[in-house]
Amino acid sequence: MVIFTKIAVVGLGNAGLPLAAVIADSGQSVVGVDIDRHRCERINRGENPIPQEAGLDQLLKMHGGQSLLATADFSDAASCTVFIVIVPLFVDDMFNPDFCILESAFRSVGSILKEGDLVVLETTVPPGTTDDKVRSWLQSASGLSSGQFFLAYSPERIMTGYSISRLREFPKVIGGADQESGIAAYQVYRQFIPNLKLVSSARVAEMIKVMEGCYRDVNIALANELYRIAEELGVDFAEARAQANHPYCHIHLPSTGVGGHCIPVYPWFLIREMERRECFDRCRLLRLAREQNDLMIDHWAQRILLECMRVDKPLGQVRICVKGITYRQGVKEFHHSRNLALAHLLAKKGLDARAWDELLSKEEVEAKGLRWMLPEDADIVFDSFELEIRLR
Amino acid sequence: MVIFTKIAVVGLGNAGLPLAAVIADSGQSVVGVDIDRHRCERINRGENPIPQEAGLDQLLKMHGGQSLLATADFSDAASCTVFIVIVPLFVDDMFNPDFCILESAFRSVGSILKEGDLVVLETTVPPGTTDDKVRSWLQSASGLSSGQFFLAYSPERIMTGYSISRLREFPKVIGGADQESGIAAYQVYRQFIPNLKLVSSARVAEMIKVMEGCYRDVNIALANELYRIAEELGVDFAEARAQANHPYCHIHLPSTGVGGHCIPVYPWFLIREMERRECFDRCRLLRLAREQNDLMIDHWAQRILLECMRVDKPLGQVRICVKGITYRQGVKEFHHSRNLALAHLLAKKGLDARAWDELLSKEEVEAKGLRWMLPEDADIVFDSFELEIRLR
Questions:
Q1: Which of the four CATH numbers 3.40.710.10, 3.30.300.30, 3.40.50.800, 3.40.50.720 does domain A6-200 have?
Q2: What is the ipTM of this complex?
Q3: Which end of chain A, N or C, is surrounded by fewer C-beta atoms within 10 Å?
């Protein structure tokens, strides 16, 4: 059975664009909505704005401006019957989610929503968001009542660089705000997602995605703790980890902490909700893992300081280069970057700490409030991805 | 190259006996030493004292009393050149390891140790034990100096019921107290351990085993925390977990906590050592995971109490049956059993809590300080393995 629908994908960012391209490639007609007009024009010319995304070039060359039409204007999606929303959810300085982008997107969808349409959210959100917030935004903007449209949630599980293969191979879950919505959403999605699993509710689907992030964060905190214990005991952690891991043991890699828009953020979705409900004892491990990961920059600052004492110069004159300040190697992004925070921490301690990054120009480093320097001009280089301190 | 040796295995318990049998089955001559004379006699008659251990029956029938000779007398092992020690290490009430059994075993080995002999420890121990304690016990009991005998560490990775297949298939690590010891031990072990990996030191090998336990404990604590969050949010944790897990996500099962001789103990090996070194900030996650797992009985007590309020009886007269008080289903052991602790906790709160266990008689339940009752006679049954509270 093929269901003829016209699908709108709202948000053509790193997660939304690969999804829109895969849907178009399945033979569906897709309207992609994004506030970035320039990006829309490029997509319609068949250009790929995410070159690191394997396979996306080819899909956009084939479908951009054809079966995938990008637009900045919601009214161009008015004839669609399925609306997939995949826009960012940011958090404030206290890690409280800021729903304004989501609300704006859903109110725009609501303004063109018709009876019988299906709306699916893909952005990772605190469990309960679809049932509570999204439903009420849509109702108030559309004037429709709850039973007059279908509403579901299906978390994106992409990974930059592998998004196309993730969509085509990796298991994807979908859950409805009610049973009919779940079934309707499943029937639409299975036309372009081969490995799809219908779960009992939107809330369960939301929880699934957040739990994955919590697993990662807590296990990175554990790896960092075991790394520091091994250091104290004079044990090579990398060697121990390599042999400790087997099909029932998955000790993660140590790091300077956890950066990016995902893993350091998702645990807070649960922590803040538990705090709001005064269930302080139900989120202690998630909270401590967050804290310990964030404190890893203090550990590295101490290690670097100890190394500085071996240089035959007054401490304030030892030239320190932090090599790598993006949050992850090979990705030019800074959100919650612990490497960037480490460079600032060292400078704040009064040390002559500067930075270098293979992805950044001198000006780009300086725009982050740091001084730039070549690693070869430093007395001490801290490689934040390899976790190596080199005395030159 | 076959090295002709006579191997002593010291400790014929659940871990030592399968190892001794596998070594005998590889064609080596083995002397098994155990303080339990009755157990030795049974083994020498070809009887299997661990019936739940798949494949052990056959090995003992073939080799017991033949190439595997069990004895309670260390002098019977005097002609051996390899000594493998695999005796229990218990902890006291404050989870400080009590080395007295290990020390006694090594001093006995030391009393018959000859120049050129190899000693290998298999018991899970705090990193550094082989280098420091074991070496000095052997030296003082044998009168030999450090370089006159070989010393190594190879942690057992058995699992009751699967020990034979674990020894024959699962990767096993071995590390020497010095380089020569590592190589000598590797050459002996690879004659009966097909999947063997030489690591750089005994200390690394010790750390590997302890880290595995820490991974398990922290991940069980995480599962318990996510379980309680899901409960608060009205999400079916089992469903969410089933779909969250994939090749990069391994969320564990929730429980009443963690019992047994292994997982609840190993994290303390690192915690206590870090505390001794005043590195309190290097073990916070391990400590909290221990605490949260141990506190799970309070969570279940609360859940049971809420259920009691639905019974039309005064609270103190509601008949509660805790079904399952051993530390793990199907294993008749109580060490650090949280299920047993939960039954006691409920009784201490003044509730009419009694216990039933499929592996235990009425007398055996009563010997644990609990009153016995059939589940069908209770108003409320808590199944401690299924985590189900049933109102009857």
A1: 3.40.50.720
A2: 0.95
A3: N
